[in-house]
């Protein structure tokens, strides 16, 4: 038997924080690729610490629903899961290249394949592009459009910016959008000045956050000038400084994110290739229907 555990931050204050985690877990359950699928959180129940004890499977794939490598993926999660012999150096990562490590959780006698975060997987670039398609209602969106990939950014963790820049570079290399820029909330270049960085009249703005919350639903819309007060809402697209801003909201709410979770497990050896194809097709159909 094989099990999948999706681990996420969660929140005591924002009930929507865990919504994407449950949604992606449900999508993966539909594929029947795993005998068991569980969700676990740092700030909600079920907690990281107990989740392995809820499983019958002896082989478990752990996928962190986090954007970057850092404190949670390298310290908190392995500690709370009590993974024997964990060492961040085992990932041999440059900040965006963590893949997986196979370890023992000795106290529950399980083999655990601990994966890198979803936010640094190459498939996340496809989710960002899909997010642009969803918000514009155009499956071919790109020509004549600029794309802003937005992250938090922080001087405390340089990997936070690396993940944003990595995907901006990959999407720029695709040649699909006229312009692609990485922007940040707490470091330069700042999302407040988004229109200064683009010549394109239409700009799609995709925040690389797992869930919609304070930053994506309050800070960023007000900082970009979409609205003076987030409680009043905003138009999509909204005209700001002569540009049309298509604000997509958190990338983690895009249904295709379930594919990235599966891709992480696939890279770690899980037998889920058919499930990957199912999710890609299923979420594409859903996006077309929504559009």
UniProtKB/TrEMBL annotation:
This is CbiX/SirB N-terminal domain-containing protein. Signal peptide: none annotated. GO terms for molecular function: lyase activity; metal ion binding. GO terms for biological process: cobalamin biosynthetic process. It holds the Pfam family CbiX. It comes from Halorubellus litoreus. Keywords: Cobalamin biosynthesis, Cobalt, Lyase, Metal-binding. The keyword Metal-binding applies. It comes from the Archaea.
